[in-house]
Amino acid sequence: MKPGFPDLEALGPARILVVGDVILDRYTWGDAGRVSPEAPVLVLRAENEEVRLGGAASVACLLRHLESQVTLAGVVGDDPSGRTVRRLLEEIDLDTDLLLNDTDRCTTTKERFVGRAAGRHPHQILRVDRESREPLEEHIEEKLTAAVTEQLDGYRAVLVSDYAKGVCTPRLLTRVIKEARERGIPVLVDPARITDYYRYRGASILTPNRAEAEGATGLSIAGPSEAFAAGEELLGRLNLDAVFLTLDKDGIAVIAKDQEPEIVPTRRREVYDITGAGDMVLAMTGLSYAAGLSFAETAVLANVAAGLEIERFGVAPVTRQQIRTELNGDAKHKQVTLEEMAGLAESYRANGRCIVFTNGCFDLLHMGHVTYLEQAAELGDVLIVAINSDASVTRLKGPERPIIRDRDRAAMLAALSCVHHVLVFDEDTPHHVLEQVRPDVLVKGGTTKTVVGKEVVARYGGSVRILDGVPDASTTSIVSRIREPSCT
Q1: Domains and CATH numbers, the chain
Q2: Which positions are catalytic?
Q3: Does the predicted model carry a pTM greater than 0.70?
Q4: Band of residue 160 on the pLDDT scale cut at 50, 70, 90
C-alpha cells in the first residue's frame, strides 16, 4: 500500500443497516442499428434481458460485495417486481427482515432499453418508470419506523438512500436519526434531489452531489470555494458532523466540524456510465466511517470506489480487491490467477465490455510483441494476455527455453499500458483458460499458421483475428543473432 493510503484491512466485516427507497432496475439489451420505417425512432432488436437491484437495494448490494453484513429496510409492493427484488436479495444472502410489503403500492421499477451502436458500447435509448412518489400510508410508515428503531442495536452504521419515492418521510427519518445517534451509531445520508433538507437534520454525514447541493442551498458551485461555502451552510443548518460534497471529476469536498475544509482529488477516468456513482459513494463512505477511518481516508476510498463504478455500465459491484489494486496502482496487480480472471471476465461481460484475449510464450519481449499487443487492445475494451509457464515453454520449445522466467515475463507484459490483465497457465494449450474466461475475440500474431483454441471460441460465438506481424521480429531470430559469432 502506498504511504498515507487507507488500509482496507481495517474495514472488517461491518454490520450495516440500509434504509430507503427500494428500486428494481430492468434492462433490455439489443442492437439498435436501424431506424423504424414507421416513425423517426430507433428499432431495438432485443437480445437479452437483465434485472438488477436499484436505490437502497443497490447500496445494500454494493455493501454486500464489499464484504459487509447488511440488513435492508424499506417497502416493496406485493407484485412480480417486489418478488424479484426479494429473490435477488436472497441470492446474495442479504437480510430482508425489515423489508415490508405494501399491498396498496407498486414496487418502484425503472426499465431501461439499451442499444449497442455498431456492435460496441451500449447506450441507454429509453427509460420507463413505474412508481409511486406518494409518502407511505401512516400505518406502513409507523410499522417500518418501529421495526427499524427497535433493531438498531448491533449495527455499526445506518445508511439512508433517499430517492424521493415516499419511503424516507420526515417523521421516519427524524425518529431513526434520533434513535441511532442516542446509541452512538452514525447515520449517513445520500439525499434526494429536493430543496428541503430538514428531514436529514442531525445525521452524521451527508453525501450530496454538486446539483443536489446547489438545489438545497441556492448556491452555484463552480469550484472549491463555492463547494466549501455550500458545505458550511448545510453543516450549520442541519447540525451535521460532515458533508461529503461530490464534485464529479474534481473529487470530493470534505467539510467537517472543527476542521479545515479540503478537496480530496480523484484521477480522471473514461466515464462509461454515471449510474450508481452516488450509491457507491454512500456505501464506501458508510463502510469506511463505521470502521473508524478519518474523513480524509474515507473520502479517498469513496473516490476510488466511485471511479471504478463509473467505468462500468449501470450499477455493478466493486470488490475490495479491485479497490486495493487501484490504490496500489502497481503493474504487479494486473497479474491475476485464472480463478480471479474468470470472475473479472464475468463482470466485464455483465457491463457490455468487449474482452480480447491472446496467449503465447512471450519469451524475450520485443517490438513485434509490443506492436501486436497494441493492435490487439484496439479490438475491444479489455486485453488479457495468458503466458505459458516455464515448464510449459520447456515442453514446447526445448530444454534451453525459456530464457526469461514466467514471473519476469508476466511483470514486463503487465507494465505495458495496453495490457489489462496477465495470467500464467501451465497447460500446453490455452483451451482450459479460454473455457473459463470466454473472451469475445481471440487474437494471434501473423507468424502463427494455426490458431490453437479457435474451436473453443467458435463454440460460444466468439471471433478469431490474426494480426500482421512485424518483419524480422521474433524471439527465435533474436536468439539466433545473439548466438551467431560477430564479424571481425
Answers
A1: 8-328 (3.40.1190.20), 331-483 (3.40.50.620)
A2: 279
A3: no
A4: very high
